[in-house]
């Protein structure tokens, strides 16, 4: 097929072939190939290093340190370059999580979270068990968006168990409801998983609010219904 000046070619293929095409002197590139050639020969080594880093966790080494060891091994073995590792780090996510950690600690240490949880449980005295469970689910979900889900669980479980005994609601069901709803972190990118997906996916906070609010509502409805049926 003969080409004329001004014709546009859309190329699809491996990065190696696109690099060859990009080096053609008769072509003017509209967009530069951004991918790196795949090192097929080092694929087995990469899998071996990844498996070894996960195996370190079985020996008692913290997960973060184990994966960091695997990343260093990837660089030392030549699978990745230091520049590749640096580009792969989403620094916006690190700053976001780094800012949330002291914020959550401040809310917890200042007693604000405990005061909020205690006042809400006190207001539920004499309420229907279904209403109690719904409020507990909402509080657990809200706190998990501000402080860590572990901290929210540790804070709320003793309070709801004591409140459940005084209100005639099964304390075990309330404790389990807190543990389940503390994982309901869809509305904001404050959870680590949501934050890690924010950069590569090009998401904004309102994207999480728009879709996460629906997921959170469904999550709470199912969790409260199941726990209520279990507590009967």
Topology summary:
Elements: H1 15-22, H2 43-58, H3 63-76, H4 82-88, H5 91-109, H6 112-123, H7 129-146, H8 149-167, H9 171-181, H10 192-201, H11 205-231
What does this structure look like?
- By secondary structure, the chain is an all-alpha fold.
- It folds into two domains: 40-89, no CATH class; 94-231, no CATH class.
- It is 69% helix and 0% strand.
- It contains eleven helices and no strands.
- The chain has helices spanning 15-22, 43-58, 63-76, 82-88, 91-109, 112-123, 129-146, 149-167, 171-181, 192-201, 205-231.
- α7 (129-146) packs antiparallel against α8.
- It starts with 14 loop residues before the first helix and ends with a helix.
- 24% of the residues are buried.
Mean pLDDT: 79
| Helix coverage percent | 55-70%
Overall number of strands: 0
Low-pLDDT residue intervals, each spanning 5 or more residues: none
Strand content: under 5%
User: Termini distance?
Assistant: 75 Å
- Overall shape: it is elongated
**SS class:** mainly alpha
Number of domains: 2
What is the chain-wise order of helices and strands? Answer: HHHHHHHHHHH
Number of helices: 11
Largest sheet: none
Radius of gyration: 26 Å
């Amino acid at each position: 097929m003969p080409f004329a000046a001004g014709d546009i070619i859309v190329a699809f293929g491996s990065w190696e072939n696109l690099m060859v095409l990009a080096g053609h002197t008769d072509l003017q590139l509209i967009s530069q190939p951004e991918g790196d050639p795949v090192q097929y020969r080092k694929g087995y080594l990469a899998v071996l290093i990844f498996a070894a880093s996960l195996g370190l966790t079985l020996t008692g080494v913290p997960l973060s340190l184990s994966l960091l060891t695997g990343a260093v091994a990837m660089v030392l073995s030549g699978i990745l370059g230091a520049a590749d590792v640096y580009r792969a780090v989403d620094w916006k996510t690190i700053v976001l999580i780094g800012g949330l950690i002291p914020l959550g600690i401040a809310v917890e240490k200042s007693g604000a979270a405990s005061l909020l949880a205690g006042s809400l449980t006190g207001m539920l005295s004499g309420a229907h068990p279904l209403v109690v469970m719904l409020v507990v689910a909402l509080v657990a979900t809200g706190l998990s968006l501000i402080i860590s889900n572990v901290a929210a669980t540790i804070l709320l479980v003793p309070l709801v168990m004591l409140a459940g005994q005084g209100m005639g609601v099964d304390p075990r069901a309330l404790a389990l409801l807190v543990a389940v709803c503390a994982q309901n972190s869809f509305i904001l990118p404050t959870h680590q998983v949501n934050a890690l997906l924010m950069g590569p996916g090009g998401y904004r906070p309102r994207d999480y609010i728009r879709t996460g609010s629906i997921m959170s509502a469904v999550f709470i409805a199912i969790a409260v219904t199941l726990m209520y049926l279990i507590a009967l």
